[in-house]
Specification:
Largest sheet: none
Helix content: over 70%
Length: about 90
């Protein structure tokens, strides 16, 4: 696991190590489940009878916005964390 220089002292704390492990291994699961769930919601909410109700239009926008947050927010941070760890392993 990639540890930044200022994190070395924090790695002695068990709660911080747990946070790092959850971040590395749980983030991709959240991204995949979130994107699949939002895609299914989007498909279901696009049915003709549902599009007429304004509430369902808001839910469609929410599904799109949530997918954007997952792909623009969480995914790049996770990729950066993983590639920093790979780069560190390659330099050893």
């Amino acid at each position: 696991m990639y540890v930044k220089p200022y994190e070395r002292d924090l790695m002695d704390v068990e709660a911080y190590r747990l946070h790092k492990l959850l971040y590395v291994y749980l983030s991709p699961v959240i991204v995949v489940v979130g994107i699949v769930g939002n895609a299914l919601s989007f498909i279901v909410l696009l049915q003709r009878p549902l599009r007429r109700v304004s509430t369902y239009c808001y839910l469609i926008v929410l599904a799109v916005a949530d997918t954007l947050v997952l792909t623009v927010g969480l995914l790049p941070k996770w990729i950066k964390q993983v590639f920093n760890a790979i780069r560190l392993l390659l330099t050893l």
